[in-house]
Amino acid sequence: MVTPARITSAKADGVAGFRLIPRIESFPAVVRFAQTPPGKLVLLAVFGLGMRVFLPDLRSVMALMAPLALITFLPAYRRLLLAASTIAIVVIETAGNSLLLVLTLTVIALSVLLYWCAMRWPNSRFAKRPVLILLTGFTCLTVFASSRAPQSWAYSALWTLVGVLSAYLWFIAYALTDRNSKPSSDLALEVAALRPLWGSTNTPFPKGAAYLRRIEAKTPEQLAVVQLKGLKLLVWAILLDVARALWNVFFHQYLQIPTPDQALTMSVHGTPAAWHLRWACQLLAYFELIFAFSIFGHKFIACCRMAGFNALRNTYRPLSSTTVMEFFNRFYYYFKELLVDFFFYPAFFRYWKGHKRMRTIFATFAAAFFGNSFYHLARDWQIVRDDGLWRAIASYQVLFFYNAFLAAGLCVSQLRKRDQNRGGFVRGRLLPAVGVGFFYCILNVFDADERMYPLIEHLKYLASLFFIHF
Amino acid sequence: MKGRADIRAFVQGLLTASGDDRPFADSDSLLFSGRLQSIDAVEIVVFLEENFGIDFAQVGFDKEQIDSVDAICALTESVAKSN
User: Fold this and answer.
1) Could you say which residues from 314 to 343 on chain A have a Cβ atom under 8 Å away from some Cβ of chain B?
2) Does B38 sit within 8 Å of A329, measured CB to CB?
3) pTM of the model
4) What is the complex's ipTM, to 2 decimals?
């Protein structure tokens, strides 16, 4: 018998179950077809066509699709093919600069050597704290490079090395922590994970070789399912890209709402935008950041899935977050994982064990404040080179404030008890999600042009949003 | 000393608190599948420290050790044996 409750439930399921892109990976006929040679060709062709939206020319598409095609037809050689493509990309990208090529290959060889040492001597001091030693070594190298006289050969070579190491830093860190995983990854996968074929920022997508090993497709059917999910994600990225373009045209060109950078600049120059426009631009910036991170993350993960690894998305339903911590997790998953793996856990396991709250607060600040700041300084090594170490650090005052603000928000979020099932939709979901959005709108005031103006100008701008002027 | 049932109940509690009412087997991935977050991993770590005396600073930490009820049970058993 169909009861009103069941009808309501069915309607709710229907709404919740609606998908803009059908779950093609759950259609048996599609999965079977994707395992056949013609099916694989169709899949690759459609995926390549989709990637053309994001890549500048056909040559770039071919450079990506050729290894993906080989991996699709020869999955048994996936790890070797990926490792070879990682090296090939380095050679192609640095072909015009022999010093850069040599140093990049040296850094890759060094990564493999360090990984081997950590595996070979698991009880050594290095193997017990490999990431700490790696980051300390990188810092020492940067400080040493800062002390060299400009224009000398050593200066140029050292800073090139710092730049290469900066790009590989967190990839090497993941390789070194692989010593804990059992069974350990093979060397080909370790090399493959060092700035892999599918692309990454300085944050490794999706983490290191140990993680890749766990999510690798083991059967033809699994490969077909993962690749179909990759294709879906790419389509989603394209749709979001189109939506973002329309969004920009409507809000920034038609309605003339300034970007946060523009609003801050206007405020600094004494000609602030109207109050409602300042709020509107903060609100828009919140959604625009979600657009931007979703699109680039989806591209990387879609390609990673096409290579046969069922990686989690980088950005997954951030607007459904009911806590600041949950948003941080859903918004930029792999960066959050980096901070947690290399800063939060080490601090959490070692310090303040007898004080639960202090332990959480200390570990959160270690990750969201110290780790986050270190990550950005290591990434922006050119600023350290050009401005000198101390002036560069001083110029990051807004970033440090942003990180401290974020860390404080994450601490409060973790220490408050949560229960998503309490309070119904409005009190349990909607209002907390609005609160989270409000927090990040405010936080984004300190994300705009982070080195252009001093912290006081950002604080004045924030205060002006609440009619406080000083 | 607590056992598998307590570990399972604890994990069930974490899933419920995060709004996940789907059933799960003891072998199901919890962290790598995305059903639990890093903050939940911390809760599991504290639970294991308090109830099984595991010191992760000593034994080393890998999320795979706590990715499923089976993995957590295997970890508690191996630590109990080494003690």
Assistant:
1) 316, 325-326, 329, 336-337, 340
2) yes
3) 0.90
4) 0.87
